[in-house]
């Protein structure tokens, strides 16, 4: 989320036509097109965040500015050239890093929350405990995971929560 990835379509000489066909998981399809004989670009139902990275006659790469969950889906570049035609398809998955919060509950137990991540984060604790994480799904495809630390021994003063996620790992410590 928030990055601006560039999807490449191998450039070739003597391009006749280039078409990016985009089928997001949410919302309708869109296309970006370029015709060399008219030196003309065309866009149908594409948001402003989807555009050519450079001039399509030189490099038909597609840039997605400030990628969001709504950009997930299939991206196919079709190129017609004098010597051959080809296509390249990408399946874009968007990772959302969770927001990590660590606090003490009313009973003095540490609670670790990895909020609104995609996919769901994994929570673990530095010290052994018998907690079972709870997951709550959200409409936008993100998941909040909550884990309450319950120690086997009562003399625990400081503990660390570790959140593992494909977009990056995080940890926080607390004394309750």
From TrEMBL:
Keywords: Disulfide bond, Glycoprotein, Membrane, Receptor, Transmembrane, Transmembrane helix. Residues 1-93, 112-175 form the Ig-like domain. Belongs to the CD200R family. It is a single-pass membrane protein. It is found in: Membrane. SUPFAM superfamilies: Immunoglobulin. GO terms for molecular function: signaling receptor activity. GO terms for biological process: regulation of neuroinflammatory response. InterPro entries: CD200R, CD80_C2-set, Ig-like_dom, Ig-like_dom_sf, Ig-like_fold, Ig_V-set. One of its GO terms (cellular component) is external side of plasma membrane. This is MOR1B protein. It comes from Nyctibius bracteatus. The keyword Membrane applies. PANTHER family: CELL SURFACE GLYCOPROTEIN CD200 RECEPTOR 2, CELL SURFACE GLYCOPROTEIN OX2 RECEPTOR PRECURSOR. It comes from the Eukaryota.
């Amino acid at each position: 989320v928030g990055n601006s990835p560039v999807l490449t379509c191998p450039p070739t000489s003597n391009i006749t036509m280039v078409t990016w066909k985009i089928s997001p998981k949410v919302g309708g399809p869109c296309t970006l097109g370029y015709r060399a004989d008219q030196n003309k670009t065309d866009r149908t139902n594409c948001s402003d965040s989807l555009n050519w990275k450079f001039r399509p006659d030189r490099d038909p790469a597609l840039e997605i500015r400030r990628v969001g969950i709504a950009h997930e889906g299939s991206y196919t570049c079709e190129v017609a050239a004098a010597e051959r035609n080809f296509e390249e398809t990408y399946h874009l998955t968007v990772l959302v890093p969770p927001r990590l919060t660590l606090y003490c509950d009313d009973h003095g137990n540490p609670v670790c929350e990895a909020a609104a991540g995609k996919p769901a984060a994994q929570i673990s604790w530095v010290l052994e405990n018998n907690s079972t994480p709870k997951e709550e799904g959200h409409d936008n495809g993100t998941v909040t995971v909550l884990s309450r630390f319950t120690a086997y021994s009562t003399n625990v003063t400081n503990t660390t929560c570790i959140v593992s996620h494909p977009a990056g790992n995080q940890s926080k410590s607390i004394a309750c």
